[in-house]
Amino acid sequence: SKTASYFYRNSIYSKIHKMKKLYVKKQLDLRNAEDIPDFEFKEFKRHEKLLLQACKDIKNMNAVTAQNIKNYILIRLVTIFENEVKVIISYVIDNFSIKPSQILGTSKHEINLDYDVENIKKENLTTGKIIASLTGLAHATKLDIVLSNINKVEFFEWAQDIFRSSDNIYDKLDKIFKKRNEVAHRLGDVKYNQKEFEEEVQGILNFIPRIYIMTYINLKLAEKNLDSKTEKLLASLCRKHLLLPLSKFKKITKSHKTKNG
Prior knowledge:
Low-confidence stretches: 4-9, 12-19
Order of helices and strands: HHHHHHHHHHHHH
Number of helices: 13
Shape: globular
Strand content: under 5%
């Protein structure tokens, strides 16, 4: 679409498509996979509520305390984002039987023979959790590659059209992730005023369940020959969470499908 094309040309997002290589951890460590919880949004909602309340409380703090809390909220926000996206990715890999090679670009990976061989058959370990643990998703380019590979679209172009957003989603995430690194590792400070900061935090939190909804609807539609009950469910999810009729979702998605889609 014209909207997606405009943002694609005028964003750092456009520069990554010539370098579509996903860098993953060189060695599998199942302890990272075991740390990924099972899929459910209840815990996310709890974290979301606490974080948004902390944003509102800033106005009652002195300047020094307010600055420290803003810095904390940003670090916490990115941690919540990465953890929840790992949960979402592990869930869709397992439930839609997505091959690891589709995500990673390879079917081979190193393992730790002393630990992994003994523990890989644990009940709480799944293919999805193992694959999700291999990528650092608090990084806009890595996130784009993984979600693009799962959905067989150029993910952020697709999301831009689905949300009909005037903001550039890729650039906003990239900026937040880089600011988090600056605050956490180089003692930087969050510079947003309270209203801007609260809007940024809310926007990132809103994006998390939408990643799942978009991906779930897309992968479910790819199964073909859906019964009427499933079609109605997808249409309901689309209207409620994406504010789109399912027919429009299908049309936008089809226009963004990659060669392998």
